[in-house]
Amino acid sequence: MEYKRRQNRRWLQKMIIFLVFGLFTARAQAGLLAPTITVSASSTNVSIGDSVTITVVAHCNLGVLSSASCLFSNGSLPTNVVFSLLSGVINLDSTVTNTLTISHITSASAGTYTATYADLLGLLNLNASVPININILPTVTALASRSGMIKQGFRILFSAPSGSNVVVQASSDMSNWTSLCTNVVANGTLTYTDAVAQTVSCRFYRAKIQ
Fold it and tell me: 83 Cβ partners below 8 Å, 6+ apart?
C-alpha cells in the first residue's frame, strides 16, 4: 500500500513538471503571448479646463488576462482621472476595453499615463503596457494695454510662443465665431488689425493655437 502511494506521488510530480514545462514551452513557441494593446490616441494636445476620453483596447490570443491598471507618472491617478472597464471578459482569447477619462484638465493632471495589462497570476510574465501622453497647449494672451482703435480699424496684440500657429477669431455675440487670420507667431507677439470693427457697434475677439 505504501509503495502504491509513493508511485502515485511520483506520477503526480511528473505530471506537474510536465504541465509546467509544457506551459513555458508553449509560450516560447508562440513568441511571447503578451496582450496586444491599441489606443484611440497615444498623444493628445489639450487646453487647461478641457476634458478628454482615451479608449484603450487589449487583446490576448492565447494568454489569460487577469488585470488592467493605469498609473500616472508611475504613481496613483489624480482625483479628476478615472480608468474604467467598459466591456470585455478577462478570459482566454479575450478583448478588454477600458477608457481613460480626464475631466477639467489642469497642469497637474497633464503628463504620461501608462495602461498595463497582465496575464493570469503573472505565471508567464505576459505583461504589456502602453504610454498615453496628455500635453497642455501653450496659451495665447491678449495684451489689452497695447490694443485699441486706430485709423485702419481695431488693432489687437497677442502674446504667444514663437513659432506657434495662431488663429484669430471675431464674434458679435460670443456664440458664433469667424476666423479672421491664421499666422505663425514671430518674436513672441502677433498683431492683427480688424477693419470691420469700424462698421459694427460690438465686436469680440479671441485667439487660439492650432
Answer: 68, 69, 70, 77, 98, 99, 100, 101, 115
Q: What is the pLDDT of residues 176-187, one digit of tens each?
A: 999 999 999 988
| Total tally of structural domains belonging to the chain | 3
pLDDT category of residue 47 using cuts at 50, 70 and 90: confident
C-alpha span between 118 and 93 (Å, rounded): 14
Q: Are residues 82 and 126 in the same domain?
A: yes
**115 in the same domain as 151:** no
Q: Are residues 69 and 20 in the same domain?
A: no
Q: Which of 103, 136, 169 is the last residue of a domain?
A: 136
10 Å Cβ neighbour count for 25?
Answer: 10
pLDDT tens figures, 10-45: 554 544 444 443 444 444 333 345 678 888 888 888
Instruction: Name 72's bridge partners.
Output: 75, 113
- Write out the three cell numbers for 139: 496659451
For residue range 62-96, list pLDDT tens digits in order: 666 777 889 999 899 999 999 998 766 555 667 78
Q: Which three cell numbers stand for residue 152?
A: 485702419
Stated length of the chain: 210
Q: Structural domain of residue 22, as residue ranges?
A: 1-31
